Amino acid sequence: MKRSNNIAAAFSLVEVTFALGIAAFCLITVFALVPVAALTSRNASSQTAATNIMAAVIADLRATPATNRTSGQFGITFGTPKTLYFDGSGQFSTSLSTNSRYQMNITFSQQSPTPAPPAVATTYADLNVTWPAAATPANATGSTEMFAAFNRN
């Protein structure tokens, strides 16, 4: 007598339930990371925009001839603290508006080498960009700072 083995290969209900449980656990973990990734991406974008703002201001100050005391693009006078406000596209204004996203504060200090030659003075600028623009630097969501030196011969 010959027996036939016609047993079909299949998953049991326990195996299917166990596999669905593992898949659900993995998906819940991945979905929990989505808000963290979105926040990290937003912070990175804000940090990049703030750095670009400071680079543009420093480039404007460095392009200012030594005979001028005020920069051409942003109207910053060497030695005078100034606050500028920037929107999301990089346009600036001197007053806070509803479109303002970043606040940039610039302060200056001047130091001459010892002994100081008559016409040599190095001006230092401390640039601090915070966001949102309406927040004070103490309670801002984010901030970045840069220090620059200008030889104003």
Protein model, in words:
The protein has 153 residues and is α+β, with helices and mostly antiparallel strands. The protein has one domain (13-151). Helix content is 33%, strand content 24%. The chain has one helix and five strands, in the order αβββββ. It has one helix spanning 13-63, and strands at 82-86, 92-93, 102-111, 122-131, 142-151. Strands 2-1-3-4-5 form a five-stranded antiparallel β-sheet, covered by helices on one side. A hairpin with a 5-residue loop joins strand 1 (82-86) and strand 2 (92-93). It is rod-shaped and about 110 Å long. The model has no long low-confidence stretch (mean pLDDT 88).
Describe the structure using short key phrases:
153 residues; alpha+beta; five-stranded antiparallel β-sheet; 24% strand; rod-shaped
Largest sheet: 5 strands, antiparallel
Given helix and strand content, the structural type is: alpha+beta
Would you tell me the overall average pLDDT?
Answer: 88
How would you describe the shape?
rod-shaped
Low-confidence stretches: none
Percent helix: 25-40%
* Strand order across the largest sheet: 2-1-3-4-5
Which series of helices and strands comes N to C?
HEEEEE
How many separate structural domains?
A: 1
Number of helices: 1
Share of residues in strands: 15-25%
The CA-CA distance between the termini, in Å, is 110 Å
